[in-house]
Amino acid sequence: MMPLWLQGWLTPCPTAARRLGYLREVLNIRRCWRWWREAWEPHFARTRETIRKAIARCPQRRTAVVIGSGWLHDVPLDDLAAAFGEVRLVDVIHPLPVRWRVRRYTNVRLVPHDITGTTDAVYRRPTTPLPTSAPTLFQDDATIDLVASVNVLSQLPYLHVEHLLGRVAEREPVFAYARQVIRAHLAYLAAMPGVKAIVADAASTRVDGRGQVRERTSTLYGEPFPWAGETWTWRLVPVSGRPPFDTYLREVHGVVL
C-alpha cells in the first residue's frame, strides 16, 4: 500500500487550496478512517443508503452529480455507475487512489472544482469585505437527474474560516462569510434540476466518559438546516484525550428532495 505522504505528493492540488490546508485535511480524513473505520462505517452506510433512495426516486437516469466525493467511503459508486449514463464526481481534490479506482468505469468523470468559488479570493486577499459564494456548476444542464451533496456542507467554509481568523481584525465578518457560503450551497442544491440528496452534519456534541454532555455547538456556524428528513449520530471521534475519554458526536441529517 502506498504511504499517505507519497499519495499526497502525487495528488494534484491547486496552489490556493494546498496553502489553505485542503490536501492536509484530505490525508487526515484517510488517516482517521484507518483508525476509526468501524466507528465511522454506520454513518457511511446511512449516507450510501440515502443516495440509493435518491436513485430510486429518479424517473430518468441520465447524469448524476456527486458533490464532495472525496475518498468515496460514503458514495455507492457501483450503484451510481450502473444506474446512470454518466456520473460526475465533484471535489477540490481527487486523491490518487480514487483516480485509480474510477478508471475502471467508462461513465464516471472526475470534476476538480471549488464549489464555493471563493478559495482563491480568500487565500489571496484575506481582508474584508470577504467574497460571496454563488455556485452555478452544471446548473443549466437539463440532463442532470440526480445531485448528491455528501458530508460536505459544514466543511465548505471550515478551512477558509481557520485561515481568515488569524488575518482579519474582526471575527464576526468571518462567521458571516461562513454562513453565506452555507446558505449559497443550500440554495444551489434547491435550484438544481432533478432529484436532490443531501447528507450533512449540523451540530457537534462532546460527551465525557461518564456520559455527560460537556459541549454542544453548531457545525453550520449557527445557520439552521432547512429540511426535514432522517437523522442519526456519527461517532466522529470515538475516544479522545486522557481518561475518562471524551467522545465527539455529530448530528447528521439525510434528506432526499
Account of the 3D structure:
This protein has 257 residues and is α/β, with parallel strands linked by helices. The chain has a single domain, classed as Rossmann fold (3-Layer(aba) Sandwich). The protein has eight helices and eight strands. Strands 1, 2, 3, 4, 5, 6, 7 and 8 form an eight-stranded mixed beta sheet that branches. Strand 5 and strand 6 form a beta hairpin. The longest helix has 35 residues. It is globular, with a radius of gyration of 18 Å. The termini are far apart. The relative contact order is 0.15.
CATH architecture: 3-Layer(aba) Sandwich
Percent helix range = 25-40%
CATH class: Alpha Beta
How far apart are the first and last residues' alpha carbons, in Å?
39 Å
User: What pattern of helices and strands is seen along the backbone?
Assistant: HHHEHEHEHEHHEEEE
The helix count comes to 8
Radius of gyration computed on alpha carbons: 18 Å
The count of DSSP E runs of length 2 or more, i.e. the number of strands, is: 8
Largest sheet, if any?
8 strands, mixed
Uncertain runs: none
Quickly count the domains. Answer: 1
Structural class: alpha/beta
CATH level 3 topology: Rossmann fold
- β-sheet strand percentage: 15-25%
Provide the residue-averaged pLDDT. 93
- Outline: globular
